[in-house]
Amino acid sequence: DGGITQSPKYLFRKEGQNVTLSCEQNLNHDAMYWYRQDPGQGLRLIYYSQIVNDFQKGDIAEGYSVSREKKESFPLTVTSAQKNPTAFYLCASSTPRAGRDYEQYFGPGTRLTVT
Amino acid sequence: AQKVTQAQTEISVVEKEDVTLDCVYETRDTTYYLFWYKQPPSGELVFLIRRNSFDEQNEISGRYSWNFQKSTSSFNFTITASQVVDSAVYFCALSVGGYQKVTFGTGTKLQVIP
Fold it and tell me: Are A103 and B50 in contact (CB < 8 Å)?
């Protein structure tokens, strides 16, 4: 089955530590995205990537970093510079062309708790 | 700037009732896409529908229907004969100027009581 996998489902870290969230897709989508979701709020875009080895900052990129070395993978690192990292993180992918695949498909999410 | 407003934070209905989730959007662009997603308790967002700005036809899919009205900048979602499995958070979203610029509303939490 094609889809997006995120691991782990739950992640706990101590303040001051960097942590990397995994996102893998086998949908052959060119574009991938990272969103952050806080309770009672919508999704906010952190980073997105349209092609391999290229990515752009979203609305709340400070304190985060990404890489896109493979089409299938788009890991997100939450650095110690992120002031409030505890949140639910969602990865998504899409095919950048008009038509049926214009919408984004989401992974199951990773819930990060930093104490 | 784009904006999506979902004024209903939480809605509770009794099973088999109809329910409408409101979505109002703001954009100055004439070409845009609107989406609805469902987020069940498991957390994963599930795509429900996409509508472009040039297609104002309403759509029905089983118990789900969508009413797109450009005159009022609304894209409302109706669930007919609601079921407990419909309990989730529903997000309306707007995409302008490219697929990466998606603005999400804050979501409406729907609880269907048996």
Answer: yes
